[in-house]
Amino acid sequence: MKRKSLLGRLTPPQFLVIGFALIIVLGGVLLSLPISSANGQGLRFADALFTATSATCVTGLVVVDTGTYFSVFGQVVIMALIQVGGLGFMTMSTLIALVLGKRISLRERLILQEALNQGSMEGIVRLIRKVLVYSLVIELTAAALFAIRWSFDFSPGRAIYLGVFHAVSMFNNAGFDLFGQFRSLVPYADDVLVNAVAMALIVLGGIGFIVMAEVMEYRNRRKLSLHTKVVLSMTAFLIVFGAIVIFLFEYTNPRTLGALDGSGKVLAAFFQAITPRTAGANTVDIAGLRQATQFFIIMLMFIGASPGSTGGGIKTTTFTTLIGAMVAMMRGKEDIVLFHYRLAKDRIYKAITLTLFAIILVIVVAMVLSTTEDHPFLMILFEVTSAFGTVGLSMGLTPDLTLVGKCIIMLTMFAGRLGPITLAYALQPKPDKELYRHPEGKIIIG
Protein backbone atom coordinates (compact mmCIF):
# COMPACT_ATOMS: atom_id res chain seq x y z
CA MET A 1 0.00 0.00 0.00
CA LYS A 2 1.41 3.39 -1.00
CA ARG A 3 2.21 5.64 1.93
CA LYS A 4 0.83 9.15 1.97
CA SER A 5 3.22 12.02 1.36
CA LEU A 6 3.91 14.54 4.10
CA LEU A 7 1.43 16.99 2.56
CA GLY A 8 -1.15 14.23 2.26
CA ARG A 9 -0.94 13.56 6.00
CA LEU A 10 -1.63 17.18 6.92
CA THR A 11 -5.09 18.07 8.19
CA PRO A 12 -6.85 21.06 6.53
CA PRO A 13 -6.02 23.39 9.47
CA GLN A 14 -2.36 22.33 9.36
CA PHE A 15 -2.26 22.85 5.60
CA LEU A 16 -3.65 26.39 5.98
CA VAL A 17 -1.17 27.30 8.73
CA ILE A 18 1.83 26.05 6.75
CA GLY A 19 0.56 27.61 3.52
CA PHE A 20 0.14 31.05 5.06
CA ALA A 21 3.53 30.77 6.77
CA LEU A 22 5.27 29.95 3.47
CA ILE A 23 3.61 32.88 1.70
CA ILE A 24 4.72 35.22 4.50
CA VAL A 25 8.33 34.02 4.31
CA LEU A 26 8.34 34.38 0.51
CA GLY A 27 6.89 37.89 0.85
CA GLY A 28 9.49 38.77 3.48
CA VAL A 29 12.32 37.67 1.16
CA LEU A 30 10.93 39.73 -1.75
CA LEU A 31 10.42 42.85 0.39
CA SER A 32 13.96 42.62 1.75
CA LEU A 33 15.47 42.83 -1.75
CA PRO A 34 17.05 46.17 -2.78
CA ILE A 35 14.61 46.44 -5.71
CA SER A 36 11.71 46.64 -3.22
CA SER A 37 12.91 49.83 -1.52
CA ALA A 38 12.88 53.32 -3.02
CA ASN A 39 16.46 54.01 -1.91
CA GLY A 40 17.73 50.70 -3.30
CA GLN A 41 19.33 49.63 -0.02
CA GLY A 42 16.89 46.91 0.98
CA LEU A 43 14.87 46.54 4.16
CA ARG A 44 16.13 44.62 7.18
CA PHE A 45 14.70 41.10 6.98
CA ALA A 46 12.91 41.33 10.34
CA ASP A 47 11.08 44.47 9.17
CA ALA A 48 10.41 42.93 5.74
CA LEU A 49 8.97 39.82 7.40
CA PHE A 50 6.80 42.02 9.66
CA THR A 51 5.47 43.90 6.61
CA ALA A 52 4.82 40.63 4.75
CA THR A 53 2.98 39.22 7.78
CA SER A 54 0.89 42.37 8.08
CA ALA A 55 0.01 42.29 4.38
CA THR A 56 -0.73 38.55 4.16
CA CYS A 57 -2.78 38.69 7.36
CA VAL A 58 -4.53 41.79 5.89
CA THR A 59 -3.74 43.85 8.96
CA GLY A 60 -2.01 47.09 7.97
CA LEU A 61 0.41 47.62 10.87
CA VAL A 62 3.63 48.99 9.38
CA VAL A 63 7.13 49.62 10.71
CA VAL A 64 8.10 51.80 7.71
CA ASP A 65 5.93 54.14 5.64
CA THR A 66 4.54 52.16 2.70
CA GLY A 67 4.10 55.16 0.40
CA THR A 68 7.61 56.58 0.73
CA TYR A 69 9.89 53.70 1.70
CA PHE A 70 8.93 51.05 -0.85
CA SER A 71 9.46 51.22 -4.60
CA VAL A 72 6.68 50.42 -7.05
CA PHE A 73 7.92 46.82 -7.11
CA GLY A 74 7.72 46.59 -3.32
CA GLN A 75 4.27 48.15 -3.28
CA VAL A 76 3.03 45.69 -5.92
CA VAL A 77 4.41 42.80 -3.83
CA ILE A 78 2.50 44.16 -0.82
CA MET A 79 -0.68 44.50 -2.91
CA ALA A 80 -0.30 40.90 -4.14
CA LEU A 81 0.18 39.65 -0.58
CA ILE A 82 -2.94 41.56 0.50
CA GLN A 83 -4.99 40.01 -2.31
CA VAL A 84 -3.76 36.48 -1.63
CA GLY A 85 -4.11 36.90 2.13
CA GLY A 86 -7.56 38.45 1.89
CA LEU A 87 -9.14 35.96 -0.48
CA GLY A 88 -7.01 33.07 0.81
CA PHE A 89 -4.24 31.27 -1.01
CA MET A 90 -6.48 28.24 -1.55
CA THR A 91 -9.03 30.47 -3.29
CA MET A 92 -6.31 31.83 -5.56
CA SER A 93 -5.03 28.29 -6.22
CA THR A 94 -8.55 27.22 -7.13
CA LEU A 95 -8.78 30.14 -9.56
CA ILE A 96 -5.65 28.93 -11.35
CA ALA A 97 -6.98 25.36 -11.41
CA LEU A 98 -10.34 26.48 -12.83
CA VAL A 99 -8.61 28.58 -15.52
CA LEU A 100 -6.46 25.59 -16.49
CA GLY A 101 -9.52 23.33 -16.49
CA LYS A 102 -8.25 21.08 -13.69
CA ARG A 103 -10.56 19.10 -11.42
CA ILE A 104 -10.81 20.17 -7.75
CA SER A 105 -10.05 17.12 -5.60
CA LEU A 106 -11.91 16.07 -2.46
CA ARG A 107 -8.92 17.05 -0.29
CA GLU A 108 -8.79 20.49 -1.87
CA ARG A 109 -12.51 20.92 -1.23
CA LEU A 110 -11.96 20.03 2.45
CA ILE A 111 -9.24 22.67 2.72
CA LEU A 112 -11.45 25.24 1.00
CA GLN A 113 -14.22 24.36 3.45
CA GLU A 114 -11.86 25.07 6.36
CA ALA A 115 -10.49 28.25 4.75
CA LEU A 116 -13.96 29.71 4.18
CA ASN A 117 -15.26 28.47 7.54
CA GLN A 118 -18.06 26.48 5.94
CA GLY A 119 -20.15 23.79 7.59
CA SER A 120 -20.09 21.49 4.55
CA MET A 121 -18.44 21.00 1.16
CA GLU A 122 -21.71 21.33 -0.74
CA GLY A 123 -21.40 24.01 -3.41
CA ILE A 124 -17.91 25.04 -2.24
CA VAL A 125 -16.43 25.39 -5.75
CA ARG A 126 -19.51 27.32 -6.90
CA LEU A 127 -19.01 29.66 -3.92
CA ILE A 128 -15.35 30.13 -4.87
CA ARG A 129 -16.38 31.22 -8.37
CA LYS A 130 -18.78 33.76 -6.86
CA VAL A 131 -16.09 35.01 -4.46
CA LEU A 132 -13.68 35.64 -7.32
CA VAL A 133 -16.25 37.31 -9.57
CA TYR A 134 -17.69 39.54 -6.83
CA SER A 135 -14.21 40.53 -5.63
CA LEU A 136 -13.03 41.43 -9.12
CA VAL A 137 -16.13 43.48 -9.93
CA ILE A 138 -16.12 45.34 -6.61
CA GLU A 139 -12.40 46.12 -6.70
CA LEU A 140 -12.46 47.30 -10.33
CA THR A 141 -15.50 49.52 -9.71
CA ALA A 142 -13.94 51.05 -6.60
CA ALA A 143 -10.58 51.50 -8.35
CA ALA A 144 -12.30 53.42 -11.16
CA LEU A 145 -14.15 55.70 -8.71
CA PHE A 146 -10.97 56.34 -6.71
CA ALA A 147 -9.02 57.04 -9.90
CA ILE A 148 -11.61 59.58 -11.09
CA ARG A 149 -11.46 61.41 -7.77
CA TRP A 150 -7.67 61.37 -7.47
CA SER A 151 -7.18 62.43 -11.08
CA PHE A 152 -7.89 65.97 -9.80
CA ASP A 153 -4.90 65.71 -7.43
CA PHE A 154 -2.44 63.51 -9.35
CA SER A 155 -1.45 62.60 -12.89
CA PRO A 156 -3.79 60.10 -14.64
CA GLY A 157 -1.30 57.23 -14.31
CA ARG A 158 -0.69 57.91 -10.64
CA ALA A 159 -4.42 58.26 -9.97
CA ILE A 160 -5.16 54.87 -11.56
CA TYR A 161 -2.33 53.24 -9.60
CA LEU A 162 -3.55 54.73 -6.32
CA GLY A 163 -7.10 53.67 -7.16
CA VAL A 164 -6.15 50.04 -7.78
CA PHE A 165 -3.91 49.76 -4.71
CA HIS A 166 -6.39 51.30 -2.30
CA ALA A 167 -9.35 49.38 -3.74
CA VAL A 168 -7.50 46.10 -3.09
CA SER A 169 -6.33 47.27 0.33
CA MET A 170 -9.74 48.50 1.51
CA PHE A 171 -11.81 45.59 0.16
CA ASN A 172 -9.46 43.09 1.80
CA ASN A 173 -9.61 45.13 5.01
CA ALA A 174 -5.83 45.62 4.99
CA GLY A 175 -5.41 49.32 5.76
CA PHE A 176 -2.20 49.89 3.77
CA ASP A 177 -2.00 53.29 2.03
CA LEU A 178 0.40 55.13 -0.28
CA PHE A 179 -0.10 58.75 0.79
CA GLY A 180 3.04 58.87 2.94
CA GLN A 181 3.89 60.03 6.45
CA PHE A 182 1.60 57.36 7.98
CA ARG A 183 -1.36 59.65 7.18
CA SER A 184 -3.76 57.04 5.75
CA LEU A 185 -6.89 58.89 4.49
CA VAL A 186 -6.59 61.85 6.90
CA PRO A 187 -6.22 64.36 4.00
CA TYR A 188 -9.65 63.21 2.76
CA ALA A 189 -11.50 63.28 6.09
CA ASP A 190 -14.35 65.41 4.68
CA ASP A 191 -14.28 64.10 1.10
CA VAL A 192 -17.66 62.45 0.48
CA LEU A 193 -16.66 60.29 -2.51
CA VAL A 194 -13.44 58.90 -0.98
CA ASN A 195 -15.20 58.19 2.32
CA ALA A 196 -18.24 56.58 0.68
CA VAL A 197 -16.22 54.29 -1.57
CA ALA A 198 -13.78 53.33 1.21
CA MET A 199 -16.58 52.60 3.71
CA ALA A 200 -18.49 50.54 1.13
CA LEU A 201 -15.37 48.48 0.40
CA ILE A 202 -14.69 47.87 4.09
CA VAL A 203 -18.28 46.80 4.80
CA LEU A 204 -18.51 44.56 1.72
CA GLY A 205 -15.18 42.93 2.51
CA GLY A 206 -16.18 42.46 6.14
CA ILE A 207 -19.64 40.91 5.89
CA GLY A 208 -18.37 37.70 4.31
CA PHE A 209 -18.70 36.17 0.88
CA ILE A 210 -21.62 33.92 1.84
CA VAL A 211 -23.65 36.93 2.92
CA MET A 212 -22.62 38.82 -0.20
CA ALA A 213 -23.74 35.93 -2.41
CA GLU A 214 -27.11 35.63 -0.66
CA VAL A 215 -27.78 39.36 -0.91
CA MET A 216 -26.90 39.36 -4.61
CA GLU A 217 -29.29 36.47 -5.23
CA TYR A 218 -32.09 37.78 -2.99
CA ARG A 219 -34.13 39.01 -5.97
CA ASN A 220 -34.46 35.44 -7.21
CA ARG A 221 -34.58 33.51 -3.93
CA ARG A 222 -36.54 36.01 -1.78
CA LYS A 223 -35.03 34.39 1.29
CA LEU A 224 -32.07 35.05 3.60
CA SER A 225 -30.47 32.51 5.90
CA LEU A 226 -30.25 33.02 9.66
CA HIS A 227 -26.50 33.61 9.29
CA THR A 228 -27.02 36.44 6.80
CA LYS A 229 -29.75 38.07 8.92
CA VAL A 230 -27.52 38.01 12.02
CA VAL A 231 -24.49 39.38 10.14
CA LEU A 232 -26.40 42.22 8.46
CA SER A 233 -28.32 43.27 11.57
CA MET A 234 -25.31 43.19 13.92
CA THR A 235 -23.11 44.94 11.35
CA ALA A 236 -25.67 47.73 10.95
CA PHE A 237 -26.09 48.05 14.72
CA LEU A 238 -22.33 48.25 15.40
CA ILE A 239 -21.83 50.86 12.66
CA VAL A 240 -24.67 53.13 13.80
CA PHE A 241 -24.03 52.69 17.53
CA GLY A 242 -20.29 53.10 17.03
CA ALA A 243 -20.74 56.28 14.99
CA ILE A 244 -23.02 57.81 17.63
CA VAL A 245 -20.56 57.03 20.46
CA ILE A 246 -17.54 58.36 18.56
CA PHE A 247 -19.47 61.45 17.46
CA LEU A 248 -20.45 62.26 21.06
CA PHE A 249 -17.02 61.51 22.55
CA GLU A 250 -15.02 63.41 19.92
CA TYR A 251 -17.36 66.26 18.95
CA THR A 252 -15.36 68.92 20.80
CA ASN A 253 -11.92 67.31 20.47
CA PRO A 254 -9.80 69.82 18.46
CA ARG A 255 -7.40 67.04 17.41
CA THR A 256 -10.10 64.97 15.72
CA LEU A 257 -13.76 65.81 14.97
CA GLY A 258 -13.52 69.28 16.49
CA ALA A 259 -11.39 70.41 13.55
CA LEU A 260 -14.07 69.46 10.98
CA ASP A 261 -17.36 71.08 9.96
CA GLY A 262 -20.77 69.48 10.58
CA SER A 263 -20.81 67.10 7.60
CA GLY A 264 -17.14 66.29 8.13
CA LYS A 265 -17.84 65.32 11.73
CA VAL A 266 -20.57 62.90 10.66
CA LEU A 267 -18.41 61.37 7.91
CA ALA A 268 -15.43 60.96 10.23
CA ALA A 269 -17.58 59.45 13.00
CA PHE A 270 -19.02 56.84 10.64
CA PHE A 271 -15.63 56.09 9.09
CA GLN A 272 -13.99 55.56 12.51
CA ALA A 273 -16.93 53.32 13.50
CA ILE A 274 -16.53 51.18 10.37
CA THR A 275 -12.74 50.95 10.15
CA PRO A 276 -12.20 49.08 13.49
CA ARG A 277 -14.17 46.25 11.87
CA THR A 278 -10.65 45.15 10.74
CA ALA A 279 -10.01 47.74 7.99
CA GLY A 280 -7.12 49.77 9.45
CA ALA A 281 -7.56 52.98 7.47
CA ASN A 282 -8.38 56.19 9.34
CA THR A 283 -9.44 59.75 8.54
CA VAL A 284 -8.50 61.28 11.91
CA ASP A 285 -5.39 60.95 14.07
CA ILE A 286 -5.94 57.81 16.19
CA ALA A 287 -3.39 58.96 18.77
CA GLY A 288 -5.36 62.21 19.12
CA LEU A 289 -8.58 60.47 20.14
CA ARG A 290 -9.70 60.68 23.74
CA GLN A 291 -8.87 57.64 25.88
CA ALA A 292 -12.55 56.68 26.19
CA THR A 293 -12.84 56.62 22.39
CA GLN A 294 -9.63 54.62 22.03
CA PHE A 295 -10.90 52.01 24.47
CA PHE A 296 -14.25 51.88 22.67
CA ILE A 297 -12.40 51.26 19.39
CA ILE A 298 -10.50 48.44 21.12
CA MET A 299 -13.84 46.77 21.81
CA LEU A 300 -14.95 47.22 18.19
CA MET A 301 -11.64 45.77 16.95
CA PHE A 302 -12.04 42.77 19.25
CA ILE A 303 -15.48 42.01 17.78
CA GLY A 304 -14.18 42.47 14.23
CA ALA A 305 -15.84 41.43 10.98
CA SER A 306 -17.99 38.42 10.03
CA PRO A 307 -17.16 34.76 9.28
CA GLY A 308 -15.91 33.90 5.80
CA SER A 309 -14.75 37.47 5.18
CA THR A 310 -11.40 39.21 4.74
CA GLY A 311 -11.53 40.46 8.34
CA GLY A 312 -10.59 39.15 11.79
CA GLY A 313 -11.76 39.46 15.39
CA ILE A 314 -14.10 37.09 17.22
CA LYS A 315 -16.70 37.91 14.53
CA THR A 316 -20.16 39.49 14.65
CA THR A 317 -21.94 36.14 14.86
CA THR A 318 -19.92 35.13 17.92
CA PHE A 319 -20.71 38.44 19.62
CA THR A 320 -24.41 38.06 18.76
CA THR A 321 -24.44 34.55 20.23
CA LEU A 322 -22.89 35.79 23.48
CA ILE A 323 -25.42 38.62 23.73
CA GLY A 324 -28.21 36.15 22.99
CA ALA A 325 -26.95 33.81 25.73
CA MET A 326 -26.88 36.66 28.25
CA VAL A 327 -30.39 37.79 27.34
CA ALA A 328 -31.75 34.22 27.46
CA MET A 329 -30.18 33.64 30.88
CA MET A 330 -31.56 36.92 32.27
CA ARG A 331 -35.04 36.04 30.99
CA GLY A 332 -34.87 32.50 32.40
CA LYS A 333 -34.99 30.90 28.94
CA GLU A 334 -33.15 27.71 28.07
CA ASP A 335 -32.71 28.41 24.35
CA ILE A 336 -31.10 31.27 22.43
CA VAL A 337 -33.62 32.31 19.78
CA LEU A 338 -32.61 34.59 16.88
CA PHE A 339 -35.09 35.49 14.13
CA HIS A 340 -37.38 32.65 15.30
CA TYR A 341 -34.57 30.07 15.10
CA ARG A 342 -33.10 28.22 18.08
CA LEU A 343 -29.29 28.05 18.15
CA ALA A 344 -27.70 24.63 18.51
CA LYS A 345 -25.70 24.00 21.69
CA ASP A 346 -22.46 23.35 19.80
CA ARG A 347 -22.66 26.85 18.26
CA ILE A 348 -22.92 28.35 21.75
CA TYR A 349 -19.99 26.30 23.07
CA LYS A 350 -17.88 27.30 20.08
CA ALA A 351 -18.70 31.01 20.57
CA ILE A 352 -17.74 30.85 24.26
CA THR A 353 -14.55 28.89 23.50
CA LEU A 354 -13.47 31.26 20.75
CA THR A 355 -14.12 34.34 22.90
CA LEU A 356 -12.19 32.96 25.88
CA PHE A 357 -9.31 31.97 23.57
CA ALA A 358 -9.25 35.49 22.17
CA ILE A 359 -9.44 37.21 25.57
CA ILE A 360 -6.63 35.08 26.99
CA LEU A 361 -4.48 35.66 23.90
CA VAL A 362 -4.93 39.44 23.96
CA ILE A 363 -4.35 39.70 27.72
CA VAL A 364 -1.24 37.51 27.73
CA VAL A 365 0.31 39.26 24.71
CA ALA A 366 -0.45 42.69 26.19
CA MET A 367 1.16 41.69 29.50
CA VAL A 368 4.27 40.39 27.76
CA LEU A 369 4.57 43.49 25.56
CA SER A 370 4.20 45.74 28.59
CA THR A 371 7.49 44.29 29.85
CA THR A 372 9.34 44.61 26.52
CA GLU A 373 7.98 47.98 25.35
CA ASP A 374 8.30 51.24 27.27
CA HIS A 375 4.91 52.71 26.38
CA PRO A 376 1.54 53.32 28.11
CA PHE A 377 -0.53 50.18 28.64
CA LEU A 378 -3.53 51.52 26.69
CA MET A 379 -1.29 52.05 23.65
CA ILE A 380 0.02 48.48 23.99
CA LEU A 381 -3.47 47.00 24.45
CA PHE A 382 -4.64 48.96 21.40
CA GLU A 383 -1.75 47.56 19.31
CA VAL A 384 -2.31 43.97 20.46
CA THR A 385 -6.06 44.07 19.81
CA SER A 386 -5.43 45.65 16.41
CA ALA A 387 -3.02 42.84 15.56
CA PHE A 388 -5.37 40.10 16.78
CA GLY A 389 -8.33 41.60 14.93
CA THR A 390 -6.12 42.09 11.83
CA VAL A 391 -7.23 45.72 11.88
CA GLY A 392 -4.09 47.79 11.38
CA LEU A 393 -5.04 50.85 13.41
CA SER A 394 -2.24 52.10 15.66
CA MET A 395 -1.61 54.86 18.15
CA GLY A 396 1.94 55.11 16.81
CA LEU A 397 3.59 52.18 18.59
CA THR A 398 4.39 49.95 15.59
CA PRO A 399 7.52 51.77 14.26
CA ASP A 400 8.95 51.89 17.81
CA LEU A 401 8.54 48.19 18.59
CA THR A 402 11.61 46.26 19.72
CA LEU A 403 12.65 43.15 17.80
CA VAL A 404 10.95 40.98 20.43
CA GLY A 405 7.85 43.16 20.21
CA LYS A 406 7.74 42.80 16.43
CA CYS A 407 7.99 39.02 16.67
CA ILE A 408 5.16 38.91 19.22
CA ILE A 409 2.92 41.15 17.10
CA MET A 410 3.69 39.04 14.01
CA LEU A 411 2.57 35.88 15.81
CA THR A 412 -0.54 37.70 17.05
CA MET A 413 -1.46 38.83 13.51
CA PHE A 414 -0.90 35.28 12.27
CA ALA A 415 -3.14 33.82 14.98
CA GLY A 416 -5.75 36.50 14.35
CA ARG A 417 -5.90 35.85 10.61
CA LEU A 418 -6.19 32.08 10.85
CA GLY A 419 -8.33 32.15 13.98
CA PRO A 420 -7.37 30.78 17.41
CA ILE A 421 -9.47 27.63 17.02
CA THR A 422 -8.03 26.77 13.59
CA LEU A 423 -4.54 27.29 15.02
CA ALA A 424 -5.38 25.08 18.01
CA TYR A 425 -6.72 22.33 15.75
CA ALA A 426 -3.56 22.52 13.65
CA LEU A 427 -1.27 22.14 16.67
CA GLN A 428 -3.18 19.50 18.64
CA PRO A 429 -2.51 15.76 18.23
CA LYS A 430 -5.20 13.52 16.80
CA PRO A 431 -7.90 13.23 19.49
CA ASP A 432 -8.75 9.83 20.96
CA LYS A 433 -12.29 8.58 20.68
CA GLU A 434 -14.24 8.94 23.93
CA LEU A 435 -15.47 5.52 25.04
CA TYR A 436 -17.56 6.71 27.99
CA ARG A 437 -19.10 9.80 29.60
CA HIS A 438 -18.49 10.92 33.17
CA PRO A 439 -21.42 11.33 35.58
CA GLU A 440 -23.03 14.74 35.61
CA GLY A 441 -22.06 17.11 38.42
CA LYS A 442 -23.19 20.57 39.53
CA ILE A 443 -21.25 23.64 40.62
CA ILE A 444 -22.49 26.98 41.87
CA ILE A 445 -22.19 29.78 39.27
CA GLY A 446 -22.30 33.49 40.08
From TrEMBL:
Superkingdom assignment: Bacteria
**What kind of membrane protein is this, topologically?**
Multi-pass membrane protein
Transmembrane region(s): 15-33, 45-64, 76-100, 131-152, 192-218, 230-249, 295-328, 348-369, 375-395, 407-427
Q: Name one Pfam family in it.
A: TrkH
**UniProt KW keywords:** Cell membrane, Ion transport, Membrane, Potassium, Potassium transport, Transmembrane, Transmembrane helix, Transport
Q: Where in the cell is it found?
A: Cell membrane
What InterPro entries would the database entry show? Cat_transpt, TrkH
Query: Key word Metal-binding present in the record?
Result: no
* Secretion signal span: none
This protein's record includes keyword Calcium: no
Which PANTHER family does the record cross-reference, listed alphabetically? KTR SYSTEM POTASSIUM UPTAKE PROTEIN B, TRK SYSTEM POTASSIUM UPTAKE PROTEIN TRKG-RELATED
Please identify the protein, giving its name as recorded: TrkH family potassium uptake protein
The species is: Paenibacillus hodogayensis
